[in-house]
Amino acid sequence: MKTFIQQTAQKILHAHGNNLSNLLVLMPNQRSCTYFKNALQQLAEQAIITPEISTLQNWLLSKSKLALADNIELITLLYNCHQQIGGSLTLDEFIGIANIMLNDFDELDVQMCDSKLFFKNLEMLQSMNTFVPGEELTEYQIKYRKFWEDFGLLYHALREKLLNEKKGYRGMILRNMAENVSEITVNNAHVYFIGFSGLNKTDEAAIAYLTQKTKTEILWDADKYYMNDELQEAGLFFRKHKSKFRISETDLVNEIAAREKKIQIIGAAKNIGQVKVMADILQNKLQLNSDSSLDTVIVVPDEKLLSPLIAHLPSNIETVNITMGLSIAGSNAASWFEIIFRLYENTNRYQSKDGTQRFYYKDIFELLQHNFFSFIFNKRKVEGFVQEMKSQNRILIRREEILKAFGNEVDSVFFHGTSANQYAQFLSSNINTLLQNLIAKAKKGNASLASEVEITFRILNILTSAQTIFSKGNEVSVKTFIAMLRENFRSERVPLEGEPVQGLQIMGLQETRGLDFKNVIILSANEGILPSGKNTNTYIPYELRREFLTTHKERDANTAYLFYRLFQKAENVFLLYNTEPDELGGGEKSRFILQLQRELISEKIKIEDLIFAVDLPDAVGEQTINIQKNGEVMKTLMKLLTESGMSPSALNTYINCTLQYYFRYIAGIREQDDMEESLDASTIGSAVHYALEKIYEQKKGAKLDSRFIETYVKERARIESLVKEYLQTRFDNESLSRGKKLLLFKVCVKLTEEFLKFEQANLLQLNEANVQTEIVMLEEKLQASISINGNKILVTGKIDIIEKVGGVIQIADYKTSNRNKKIPVLDEDTWSELMTDPKHSKPVQLLVYAWLYYQQKQQSDFGIRSGIYWLKSDDKKLETLRTDKANDLLDVSTMLLFEGKLKEILATLIDNTISFAKTEAVERCKFCEFAGICMR
Amino acid sequence: MLRIYKASAGSGKTYTLVKEYLRLALKSPLQFRHILAITFTNKAAAEMKTRIIEALEGLSKNEIKYQLLKKELCELAGKNENELTSDASIILRNMLHNYADISVCTIDSFVHRIVRSFAYDLHLPMNFEIEMDSKELLNAAIQLLLDRLNETDQQVTQAVVEFAESKIEDGKSWNVEKEISKLGKQLFVDDAQAKIQQLSFVSFDELREARNSLYAFKTSFEQKLFDEGKKAFDCIVTNGLTAKDFHYGNTGLFGFFKAYAENDFPPKILGNSYVLATVNDDKWSKTSAITEPQKAQLNVHYNNIAQLWNKQGKDYFLADLLLKNFYSFILLTDLKKLMDEVKAENNVLHISDFQHKVFEIVKEQDAPIIYERIGDRYDNILIDEFQDTSVIQWRNLLPLIENSQFKSEDSLVVGDGKQAIYRFRGGEVEQFTVLPKVYGSDGDEILKGREVAISNYGAGVITLENNFRSRKEIVDFNNSLYKELLELPELKNKNIYADYFQKQGRQDDGGFVSIEFLKENDEAKLLLNDIRAFRVEEIVNDVLKRGYNYKDVAVLTRSNANASFIASYLVSKRIKVVSPESLLIHHSLKVHLLMALLAYLNRKDNHIARAEILHFTFLLLNKELHLETIDLKTSAIEFEKYVREKTEIEFNSTELVTGRLSDLLHQLIQIFQLENDDPFVQFFLDEVLLFASRYGNSIDDFLNWWEKVKDKKSIIYPESMDAVRIMTIHKSKGLEFPIVILADASETQKRGEDSFWIDVEKNWLPQLHIGLLPNTQDVQETEFASLYEKEKEKTFLDLLNLLYVATTRAEDALYILSKEEEKEPVSNNSVTAVIISFLRSVSLWEGFRNYNFGDKEFVKIFKRGSHSSLASFMKGKTTAKNLLASNIKIRMRADLLWNDKSKERIDEGNLLHEALKRIQKTGDEEIVIRALLAEGVIEETELSKLSEQLKAILQHPDMKKYFDGTATVLNERQILKKNEKIRIPDRVILFEDGATVLDYKTGNERPEYQPQLRDYAQWLEEAGIKVKEKILFYTQTQKAVTVK
User: Fold this and answer.
1) The pLDDT of residue A845 is above 80
2) Do residue A584 and residue B1019 have CB atoms under 8 angstroms apart?
3) Which of A571, A782, B112, B412 is most open to solvent, judged by the fewest CB atoms within 10 Å of its CB?
4) What's the complex ipTM?
5) Closest chain B residue to A332 measured between Cα atoms?
6) What is the CATH number of the domain that holds A537?
7) Mind listing the pLDDT tens digit for each residue in A458-476?
8) Cis-peptide, bond into residue A531, ω within 30° of zero
9) Among all residues of chain B, which has the CA nearest to that of A20?
10) Domain boundary at A211, A228, A251, which?
11) How far apart are CA B395 and CA B415, in angstroms?
12) Among B96, B116, B927, whose Cβ lies nearest the Cβ of A595?
């Protein structure tokens, strides 16, 4: 197969021998220029000098006296114009509008629209739209009309400004050239136009001029299949140009329908599915090697797929060429910028009152851990720093602290200035370092970084020209500048070109223009992507676009041409599409596929329609986990039980799930404390506990009366200061004074206050009844050992408060959690499931406390209460654990009964034949931190 | 003419829509451009489009399958068969090549298109994105509200703090977020928008005063009751009376007064029957010691209490209800502001905003100019699933319908009130039932006008009465079931079920229906679940014996929880199942490992993540792990070393290229050898792509996002997979299956309104004229009781409609599993009750047992060409290679201008080169420099230096002549030859008497440059150019050297 470019090269060589240096060859895109040179070289038996080869646009731009203005400059200038004509938008508001307007202006110029006529029409149309006979215009309608008047004013004003600076935007320069075409000097003996289809008005003007000046020849790359069928949109431009450029039948090929080819249409669910199909085709269907891969192109209309595509390339592919425009926004470099931007934005938010710069910890952590910075921040130091900040709960981190940890040289990653110009300088000096590192890495063989280098370089260019603009006095705020950059990253595409031409070709659809391949694989052949359909970002109403400019029709026709053109010389075509719709549609085969299936009917053509199905694995069963109590486990366990002992919460963990006990206490895996952005429930609990302890401490061993409590109830500030005292050990004052922390601080105070109110009333009642209350113990840790099969196991418990009320000992625990249900009575049922069902965790805890106290006293007339103060509940009375006996006290028999249960369960724990395993009751896993490991 | 099609289940609705579409399209080759067909889901839109194209193809090819359709269309269009064949093929071709002009879409995507084209007019950024998740937005707004406490708005701060404190005082959870969020949902409710707008005019102070008024009213009323109660009870006590003196003692009048005296309400506020017996009929206990004056006094107290209730009771309940959510209510407008801020900041619109945005325009602009702006003029509007259309959606479409009517064109709506199950999404079934009247037109001039316009141009109702889906017994069963339902007094809007009766459309008889009542053991719900799942398994196994496949069976449930319970049960019984739950991506070991790795990379000291990494890696490698011997608290470097040593997996986090999430995951997949063909990993990567394209590449954000969405993300299975389908009834809408098991018929689930907006005019509440009542029973006690009643009716209708959808999905057999109650229910507001009353009405009811209808011995009949053949499958395995090793070739422009060794920002030599390359002749330098500046290649500060350098060269006595523009210049032109390296001399000047080759050099003079130039010359000669001199120019020393 000879490609169109090869045929063309041959033709030109044939006509001019090797005397090509004074030819001018103009092509529609860069990639075909490269291919053309390549083709020439393959044909050059003798040395030849390449003709002047360029894309038509670049050639025109290079001939112009006007320099191409940068996007940021255009926006700033346009904004100046906006202000000049009395516009009132802020630059921030204006950026979005500006970008679309600039696109519209560009198109107006490229199509050489009569701007006077156009804007007159526009105004007329828009006033008609708002005109209601006999009614006054509303404010809204006046504004609306004004917008359209301004639209024209802005267009002219911007042009004027740019001309003054000898600059222009693309369309403006092209138009300028086309209108002053006679000023171009052409020394070339012969001009070739190769592979053009849809021509703009500026293109046409250039061609007309050159045709008149020198010898020209236009070589078309079109097929009869779409040219001669009036309905085929792919032939739209050719039919339009037919008479003007005298396109004849002999200029056309007949290859789409007449050449043998195999077409496979393959649907796959979502994107990765398509990529997998592609990999399968490359490896198994085409069985490419290093030679044949050059005949193969993968067309990627949706650049999102590029990264997974590269990752899925099969091992028979050795070299890959990527040629496509990549948006900056999706790149690694952009993710780095996003961190820097956020750092700035959040710093402004969190700046302290005295002006100290402070950073939000998440931003800092991301910065420190981003690989682009690995050459700035020492990895080991990063780890230590992160831990230190976390242990101190540092939501906001000062710059000095970072410098202290990493050295002053890292200061360059923090912005010190105030102006956008300084910011641009700051960014580019950072990017300098970055780029140097990237290039070094890319050269060392990390080829995937090459595209990052290009993108980063482009960003550097943007920043440099921004500085130039700002230094001319067009300064904006840093915030606006960031918005501009973000917008720029979103809209601008960096053209990547694979060079030298080698290996498998990966391209965007636009880049395939003029090129031919034996094997063509097209991804994302879906409506909405191929073609993109009706969505247009423009202010120009459809009616006017139809008259003066282009609409989706032309855009779709262009896509159709690019699509069908690939079929001309191809032998194997694979059309991959996504079968799954997203929120607003999609999942629809491209219309081109529907067309092919119904129209490309020929004996030479085989079309297959396939669906790629994933192989469903058998249902994913849950994995069992059984931890045997082998030597090591037993050793750790026994050490734990004899040295640290078993607390009520450990016991309850064991009852809940033995594996959870293993993970927590034996493997020692603890959930890392995360930064507390608000106050955790446990912190609230601790704060209230602390405040209560501090209050009751004063009466330890003494009698408690309501008046004492009243002093606190009456003066909320006293409670506040106690709560604050505790919270200040963990958080700085300022963070407690705002946001959620403030709210929860108030909550802590309120909880304490409400309890004290209850206590006051309660004591008053008791005092009236002449019942004495006395504080026996506060925050006391009790322990006792219990012997099981000769092992002395320690049982421990930390008790919030022990009071003596009317002579009876009362053990109490404060709880700030929700009171879900009543503490069950210790009846036969409760006893029987006490040590198996975690719903009895409260009785277990209260019994452990009581038992520990009993072990201390060992009295035969033992009889105490053990209960809970529910601080959050409406009813704050001590809820005590009760037996089913008439007496509501826990006595010796209860203690002995419990001791038996305790022995029983501890015996299972140290029994090395019983392994640790997941609980069967899945509902217990809901709040377990190890649910991930157990896959529950 | 507006045609209103009433299409009961299985009545060939889609066929009708396609037929009507074609009838309209057949008018002219391009008429389809003027037809707008609106469907409810994307899937339905895609299906309709496909069916239209297939039908046109079938008609044009004269396929037998389309004969009936052809006949019908010939008749409708007044054409003969040949004409129709050729018209169909012309239209088909036109459609295929003007594809963008086909408007078959969902209402959301249609409105989305309009909003995009009106972005400027609506003050929207052009590039806004769509956020589907209302919870996310709401949550972001609430977080913002809380984050800003004490920073800006002191009033808001005070309100939130008071809110939390008041909850603590009431002994409730201080978590105010939940409650604010609950009420915040109102921000997404269509009907609430106007009210929220109204609310925004009420100042914060007024709102707080309103709260005080409400509170004052409430407490003063309670105080009055208490006073009265206390007086009465004092009277009882001081007179030495006890409970024994009263009729029914404590439960009677004694308890009644006691309750009020304790500031509490008795169970019945005006007293139970014993109390009434005492006060009305003078009943006291037989041994009562009460005297007549005492009686009289108590009577006075009673009457005072009763009077209080009569006079102010309604208002009291109103105040009480208003107070319930009052803090959230106060915060509602602030929340709205914050949400707008969140939307603006993130450049997003919520999907519900679209309708409101369009409504803003439609409201003002009468003419359909709006719809023309997007470039389409619609003559014919077709709307599917009309019963689920929301009020605002219909109002937005009305101008189009009106316009169509005005042009004497045909439009149609298709719907079925019985299948209205999307009330919770704003669907308003009455809009359908009142057609051709316009719902809510009373008192609205514009709507009234549209209504008149529509009926003026003609409107008609057509009922599709055949059922082509179900076999006879099922049709019969449903006919008699819904006939009975129509009689139920609870069903107020009989209109909706008036068209319940269906004729048998299928040719074959047979079919089977079974009703079972599963017995709940006294212990728990759990057991009912077990029994239910067990029965489903039995039924599945039974129908397999009758010739059916797994994929013929659908299990429908009312709740997601039941669906997932049954799914996991069947899975455990090795029955292949497709349910969203059973195919969840996060159920995969490998995905778990990947998430653990991400969590670890996010925070290296995450010990749980470390444990997970070890656990899953060892599991995948079949190795035994002893966590107790490992120190997880060690440094990250040590930890990774441990992983490498124990598993031979080359994991080293410092060598990962981070940045793009998907790149990162691909690296992890390769390093941990997580087999790429795993479908779970495959679809997981799709989610990663989706996330990154929307929210960026932060690992932390991704981890949080995944936690929220993981229970909704499943892998996608091929349609034809042989597995039992398990889904909720909502999901089953529009589908059909040979066997349907309705597994939890008896469960009820309320998805109605949370609250009611009301207008209040009270002299004790001067500050406020609107309010929000929570939907609770107490509403019945207020003057707004009718709202509650109406809601109850609608809830009942929801219940019935879901039952209707479920029972009409089956083709061959339908199993209804209900619950055995302890006693027969009295009222009809449960499905069990409804079924029992049906069984009674057909005189079958004999208590809770099984009831069968139809052919018990049914077997599968294989239909000829029943379902359109699906495309065949392909499968394949590939081995991916190491990403980093693949040799990707890209031209690095940066490299040309950059020197990675020197500290200079730009290698000056290269820069000079770049400039000279662009210069043809002296005088070009100005524009070249300007261009380099504009491109950002150089900075302003470098400008003068560069231009100095250029000037030095161009003005250099030895160089001048090469730049004077007299001769043709070839700048960096390549010299090519097959299989040879390409040569690129910097500048060749073609003088008449021969060419000069010129090369610029930056550094010091070097002899090795000379052969290079001689080589260039030799090549140029071969290419036919006579070389007369060869010059090396050293830019630093400004020296030109002639090479011999």
Assistant:
1) yes
2) no
3) A571
4) 0.91
5) B659
6) 3.40.50.300
7) 898 899 888 888 888 777 8
8) yes
9) B1023
10) A251
11) 17
12) B96
